[in-house]
Amino acid sequence: MSYQKIIEQIKPELENLIDNLKQELMKIQTSRISSALIEDITVEIEGNQIPLKRLGAIFSSSARELTVQPWDKLYLEPIVRAIERAGLGLAPLVDKDTIRLVAPPLTEETKKNLIRLLNQKKEETFQNIRHLRDRAWREIQEGFRQGEIREDDKYKGKDKLEEVVSEFRDKVEELTEKKEKEITG
What we know:
CATH superfamily of the largest domain: Ribosome-recycling factor
Number of strands: 6
Number of helices: 4
Order of helices and strands: HEEEEHEEHH
Radius of gyration: 22 Å
Structural class: alpha+beta
């Protein structure tokens, strides 16, 4: 196998890491509340764990308020319990057949905690990128040992691999910097 193929094989995995990071970042509350914050909360309905987004419509009423309109009134109480259990600091208010969630304003301490969480997510993504890089480099070296890759191609592969990894690290930095600006306002 050529070093190009090895590098091409890890690119979709790297893209996956970026997509996962984007999903995680959407869940981090900023001055604007997003439906992504609650849509994947699992709600117990008749013994089944169902994501909230499958039980009703979730929409933004304002920058700091979300409204959940369940498809069935029987879902109201289980949804409220699930949101409270999630520990997001949102107090659900039931208003007839809808649930309103108002996000409290961010305090300096909350902002620091969110930035700490953001940095944790960034570091986890960097670790996963390093893991993929190391795996690809081992495959390139193994290809060299087995005579499938020439020595100069091995070093070209290492340089190309570092270039690709650097590109994805830059994407992670860009995403987390943007989110940090949203948090700090």
